[in-house]
Amino acid sequence: MPVERITFSAQQSLIRDYLLQSQRDYNKISVQATTGKKVNTLSDDPANLSRILSLRSQTSSQEQYSLNLTHAQSTLEYTDSRLGQMTDVINRIRDIALQANNTTTSSTEMSELVTEISNLKSEFLGYANSQFENKYIFSGSATNTQPFTGSTVSFAGNTSALYAQATQTLQIQTNLDANSFLMGNKATATGATSALNLRNSGDVSLGLAAGDTITIGGTVGATPLAATISVTSSTTLSNIASSLETALRAAGDGTEVVSVTGGGALQVTSGAGAITGLTLSVSGKTDFNTALTFTTPITAGGGTGTSGSLLSGTGEDVFNVIDSIVSALSSRDNTAFATHLQRLDNSLLQINEARASVGGRLQQIDATDNFLSSEKVRIMDQLSLIEDADVTDVYTKLANKETVLRLVFQSASKVLSTLSSLSLNLN
């Protein structure tokens, strides 16, 4: 049987490989002792690789959610502080207005108080145009656009919502619809505008409510009008126009037309007979009655008449309310003042409702943050079970590996020295 000869070079290679393996074993245990973890590279535990990657991905997501919540909290806390300042301004305006609306107030005093209210409006406008981290907080998603501009203030932002991703399935809105709580969603009325949201050109609500009855008065030719319109929660301006047209045609020749103009007014076109004294009225609703009265007779044969222009809105335009307070005080119009003071109270309610919404979101952030903290603990506990090393066991193994490595080096040194001598003797 032939005997294989192991060359000196091959013997050296075998010893080197054994030394390297012993060194690798020692290094692996040494890293575990340093980090306290038995899994320091993905190859350390292939069986749990998928689970480890999943848990680490969840940890990364949780950290991002926490960052999102921190920023959302900062944004909403800043928003809340600005709403609080707005509330303070409205209350100061109310106090000054009540002080000014007094028969004993002199012209000079009135002028000074009105100027103070105007200055407070400017302060309020500044809060409405507040920025957080160089972004306008009340301009919807158009955060680089100043939302409120002009002496007759208009809204230049949009109503788009911004959200923070709080968890995989939860988003928390971080902004407010300023067009709603500061402008009352004001817009020119259209045919689709709810009758309950109609406002006059001065932005005062017409006060229609479900259950009201609109009485149509006037004459077509020599025939008197005696029709009514029942208002429901679904009645629109187009419905009012259509009912008015039906009443006019019943009293006229059937060619009368009523439409809603682009400016938000009702336009009546006569038939063969003239239309005179045309009114739409609701008992006790002065603003509605005034807005929908046709003061000029509509001539026969296609003549037209137009009501007052109407606006649509679900609330108060706060800036308009302040201007109206100033106007009523300046003209010492007590009736108008009473109307606009009530509107000021409505404005305060709108701002407080917006602030309550912010408060609710801040509470939601606190609850979500607590949930994320508990989830982080749960995930880290699961990772610990897979990755963390038994410190006592690791240090015992490290000592053993260190001893083995030292002995291997010593043995290898002797073996290599002997082999080297034998090789020289053979040569």
Describe this structure in words.
The protein has 427 residues and is α+β, with helices and mostly antiparallel strands. The chain folds into two domains: 55-186 and 316-375, f41 fragment of flagellin, N-terminal domain, CATH 1.20.1330.10; 188-312, no CATH class. It contains nine helices and 16 strands. It has helices at 8-35, 49-100, 107-128, 178-181, 237-251, 286-291, 318-330, 334-387, 391-426; strands at residues 131-132, 135-136, 148-149, 154-155, 163-165, 171-173, 187-188, 198-199, 213-220, 223-224, 227-230, 257-260, 266-269, 275-281, 304-306, 311-312. The strands form six sheets. Strands 9, 10, 11 and 14 form a four-stranded antiparallel sheet that branches. The protein has a three-stranded antiparallel sheet with strand order 7-16-8, with no helix packed on it. A hairpin with a 2-residue loop joins strand 9 (213-220) and strand 10 (223-224). Helix 2 (49-100) runs antiparallel to helix 3 (107-128), helix 2 runs antiparallel to helix 8 (334-387) and helix 3 (107-128) runs antiparallel to helix 7. The longest helix has 54 residues, at 334-387. The radius of gyration is 41 Å and the shape is elongated. The model has no long low-confidence stretch (mean pLDDT 87).
